[in-house]
C-alpha cells in the first residue's frame, strides 16, 4: 500500500510499504477514505523528531470502511467507521472512568506515557498511522466507531480528534451560558473550541496572528483579535475589567513569540537523536508564550484549559501568578471515546450546529501530503485543515 512516512526533520514522503495484517481477534483493517493532517503532526514534523524513526507512518485522524474484521472485533466487512486517535481497550480501570487517553491496557510504560496513539512516535508506541491506504485498528470493538452511511466523510471525520478535543477543552474550561472565554490559537482545534463554547452559550474571544484563521472564527460568532499588545486590554475592557472566566490554550509548544525556546527547539532538532531525546526529557524546550498569555489574561479565580500539546519536562511556569490569581489549570490528551455519544447527534444534525461544513480548506490526494505538510506548517495558500483522500 501507499503511506505517508516520516523521513527526517521537515521531511515526509509517500512510500510503498507492507500492507497491515490482522494480529489480534479484536483488530480490523480499514480502507481509509479520508485522513486529516493535524497540528499535532506538525510537532512530529519539527520538534519531536528525536522520538521518530525513519519510515514511521504518520496520521491519527482517519475514517474508512472495514475490509477485514477479526472474530472478536464486533465489526463486519463493509462497516463505515471513524477511528479515535488514542488506542484504548474500553474495559480497564481508566477506560471505565472515561479516561481513555490513560488506558492501562495500551499505556506505553517503557516511556512513561499514557495510552498508545496512532502514528505518534516511540513515546506513544510507534503504532503505524492512518495517513495511508489501509490501517490496522487494534481494539476495534471499542476504537472503530460505526457511523451512518448517508452523510459525507467530513461530517464524521473530526470525531477522530478535533471535535472531541475541542469539546473536552471547553468542558475543562467549565464555561457555559453567559460565561466568557478566550481561545488562544485558531487552528482547527481552536476553531472548534470557539464554536462549541458559542454553541453552549458563552461569549467567545479568539486570538491568532493569521488573518484567514481569524476570519473563519469570526464567521462562527467569535470576536477576534491579533496577538497585539493591546489585545488583552480590549478583552479586559469587555469583561468588566476582570478578564474572561476561562482561557483555552489551543496553541501548544510551538507558539510564535518565544524566541529563546525557539532557539532551543532548533538546537534539539539538530542534535543526534539520543542527545536530543535527553534534552527534551530533562529540559524546558516548550515555547510557552501562548500559555503565559493565557495565564495573564484569565480573570482571578478563573480556569486555564490547556489543549495544545507540550513536551518539555522542565518548562518553567509562573507559579507566583498562578497561585496569587487562584487559577485552575486543566489539561491533557483528549479522551476521545468518552465524548463520542454526546457528539454524534451534533455532527449528524442537518443544521450543522458546530459548523463542520466550514473547516476543511484542502482535500487532496495522498500523493500531495508532503506539500500539504509544508503549506499547513507555513500557513500558506489559506491552509487551515487538510484532508487527504488515499483513493484519489
Ligand atoms: N490535547 C489533545 O488531545 C490534542 C489533540 C489534538 C491537537 N492538540 C494540540 O492542539 C494544538 C493546536 O492544534 P491545531 O491542529 O489547531 O494546530 P495549528 O498548528 O493549526 O494551530 C495552532 C494555532 O496557534 C496559532 N498561534 C501560534 N502562536 C500563537 C500565539 N503566540 N498566540 C496565539 N496564537 C498563536 C497559530 O497561528 C495557529 O493558528 C497543537 O498543539 C496540537 O498538538 C491536542
Ligand atoms: Zn490530531
Ligand atoms: Zn483501557
From TrEMBL:
Signal sequence, renumbered to the chain: none
Designated name of the protein: Threonine dehydrogenase-like Zn-dependent dehydrogenase
Record domain Alcohol dehydrogenase-like N-terminal: where: 25-141
GO molecular function: oxidoreductase activity; zinc ion binding
PANTHER family reported in the protein's UniProt record: DEHYDROGENASE, ZINC-CONTAINING, PUTATIVE (AFU_ORTHOLOGUE AFUA_2G02810)-RELATED (PTHR42813:SF2), ZINC-TYPE ALCOHOL DEHYDROGENASE-LIKE (PTHR42813)
SUPFAM superfamilies with a match to the protein in the record: GroES-like, NAD(P)-binding Rossmann-fold domains
PROSITE patterns attached to this UniProt entry: ADH_ZINC (PS00059)
Domain of life, source organism: Bacteria
Necessary cofactors: Zn(2+)
Keywords attached to this entry: Metal-binding, Oxidoreductase, Zinc
Record-stated family: Belongs to the zinc-containing alcohol dehydrogenase family.
Pfam families xrefs: ADH_N, ADH_zinc_N
Organism (species): Brevibacterium celere
KW Lipid metabolism (keyword) present: no
CDD domains per the UniProt record, alphabetical: FDH_like_1
Ranges for domain Alcohol dehydrogenase-like C-terminal: 188-254
Protein's UniProt keywords contain Metal-binding: yes
